[in-house]
Target: Cytochrome ubiquinol oxidase subunit I
Amino acid sequence: MLASFDAVLLARIQFAFTVSFHFLFPAFTIGLASYLAVLNGLWLFTKDHKYLDLFRYWVKIFALAFAMGVVSGIVMSYQFGTNWSVFSDRAGPVIGAPMAYEVLSAFFLEAGFLGIMLFGRDRVGPALHMAACAAVAFGTFFSAFWILSVNSWMHTPAGFSIDPQTGQFLPEDFWKVIFNPSFPYRLLHTVTAAYLTTAFIVGGVGAWHLLRRRRRREEASAATRTMFSMAMWMAVIVAPLQIFLGDLHGLNTLEHQPAKVMAMEGHYQSYPDGAPLYLFGIPNDREQRLDYAFGIPKLSSLILRHELNAPMAGLDTVPDADQPPVAIVFWAFRIMVALGFAMLGIGLWSLWARWRGRLFEDSGLHRAAVLMAPSGLIAVLAGWITTEVGRQPFTVYGLLRTSDSVAPLAAPAVGASLIAFIVIYFAVFGAGTFYILRLMGRPPVFDEPRLKDVSDGPIRAAGITPAPEQTSRRPQDPRKGE
Model:
């Protein structure tokens, strides 16, 4: 059955599946690591026990999410050698060094200080423990720095030459490779999305416990109230910033990858006198048109060119073989934008409730916050799909096609490993996610229990003193032989 499938398509699906699963965890832990560092700093500065309780509450969840992010990320690196060996051979001289630096600097920084962050509060002193929390937070950001630099280079390659004999991309200017034209915009947009993701998960958990306490006619703890309040402040500040950064990123994409923007906007045709902003439509790649289109005249030109009548080129100027799949890009982009404005709406709603003194009593706001808790995860996946599918049909934009990057594997081999990944991922990471949700379902309490380590007793089998050797033998049954 698998032999009838296309090996390239299966390899793309496999990488998309594994990277989507993996991306959910860093999108959460990047923001959560910074949140933990802030909580620890507030505890040291104010000695208010609610901050310590929140730190102990969320650090358990961080440890699990971080572990699942590491494990799910290892799989992707192997796929570069199995499914995408041609891409690795061609682009390896350029992207190999930044990916190695990510492990040697960022990941080692995270992993090296993680143990102190989790278990070292009573062992190394408050100053070093705070430094460890800050190092883990910086390490998560630094890891995103290197990975997004590599990814951005694949979208806007710079600082290289191509060997005419081997076809390999050779680095010529390291700084141009790292700081390629789209990297600053993608880095800021992605990291800000991670902070928003964490804010809405934390806010959703706080709102859930506020609703439960109200239903039971009980007073919510100071830690629960603080959790929700801090998350809503983050939404108010970061959501409008994210929309602004997204606009800058879109303008950069228009400059360097115009076909992607055409697909995002659903512009099959060119518009010499101002392009509409389509809010809805069904992309029809075969007929090269947007069916059932509903849009606002000239608004796309105003947003992208800052002029109502600015001309906008369409996909009719791009060869069919170079066009991305419009339907996926078109709808993923709209999901991302819709969720971004919904986040802004929740932030403004919370600001209004705070001004009225009803931040912790507005049940409508709390229900909306619970509903929006996974919105950040959905938005980052939608944004990632927009970015990566919009780059197609290239792995290195304009220079190396996806069909020319795949390893010479048969479809059954790729399909079998894809099925194995799906089964194992849903079993292993599904169980881990279920346990995280169980932890979130319990509210933070006063004097929140800390993580326990091996100082509470040995948990190893090796190294335990054996029982003393018996000096006498049990008598043998005379009916049995020696």
